[in-house]
Design goal:
Number of strands: 8
Strand order of the largest sheet: 1-2-4-3-5-6-7-8
CATH architecture of the largest domain: 3-Layer(aba) Sandwich
Shape: globular
Largest sheet: 8 strands, mixed
CATH class of the largest domain: Alpha Beta
Radius of gyration: 18 Å
GO molecular function, one term: aminopeptidase activity
Structural class: alpha/beta
Subcellular location: Cytoplasm
Order of helices and strands: EEEEHEHEHHHHHHHEHEH
Active site: 107 (nucleophile), 264, 292 (proton donor)
Number of domains: 2
Main location: cytoplasm
Domain AB hydrolase-1: 32-293
Number of helices: 11
Strand content: 15-25%
Amino acid sequence: MYPPIEPYETGKLKVSDLHTLYYELSGKKDGNPVVFLHGGPGGGTDPIDRSFFDPSKYKIVLFDQRGSGNSTPPASLEENTTWDLVKDIERLREHLGIDKWHVFGGSWGSTLSLAYAQSHPDRVKTLVLRGIFTLRKSELRFFYQEGASHIFPEAWEEFIAPIPEAERGDMVLAYHAQLNSEDDETRLRAARAWTKWEMWTSKLHVDPKQVAEADDNDWSNAFARIENHYFVNDGFMRDGQLLEKQEIDKIRHIPCVVVQGRYDVVCPATTAYALKKVWPEITLHIVPDAGHSSREPGTSKLLVKATDEFAHI
């Protein structure tokens, strides 16, 4: 990855009567524009996200999605759907005076990248995606009900602890009740447990520092509430919509590189493989020694290689 850099411009963009987005620009002012779509939903951006791109070639656009990071109001679920975010990306592009840009996203960022590209294919130069997630019921079931629980049983035990045994038949729905509780202690305990489960399972080698991030109440509250809100609503999409042939046909012409960890249990490789089957034109890299995180060496190396190769387009 490229060395850390600071933004040359930060700003706020009001996208509705309720929501205002934080955005920042770094790299080359007149460079090739790229927009980074963060994960979660609800995760927000991190300064290290700028380092996937050559700052001498790219105009790097980062922004925090509704309710996330430095965007306001924090952790808000109102007017917060996939299609609201797609519209926000277009508003930001128009606000910045950009005609077309590269789109980069991992995990939920890959979901949003596909949804945006399928809605506005004429505005997307290339796609660089990681840890493909299309929000199908089968994907949510594997991670939140039965699947990843068999691989991380000790972390799973902590995840289910806040939920009464009688309610564990649908963990996403059970957490929805607690994450929207009017009791702060109930809500924050659930938010920390929900977030800790994902931090535990995101790397091939468990990263204690990443797991500890779940103890940040403000960050966990936004991350868990917004994620759960999207998941309990099936992403506000038809099941499997992003993989439907008529949707892929809209973006088939767009150069696309996918980087997928072989041992990703958050967004297992089966979804990236399903995307490759319906869209054989993409380049799919399976990293043999990686899990879900974009920070793992084999994954970050291939992501940077892809952005380097696309810098001239």
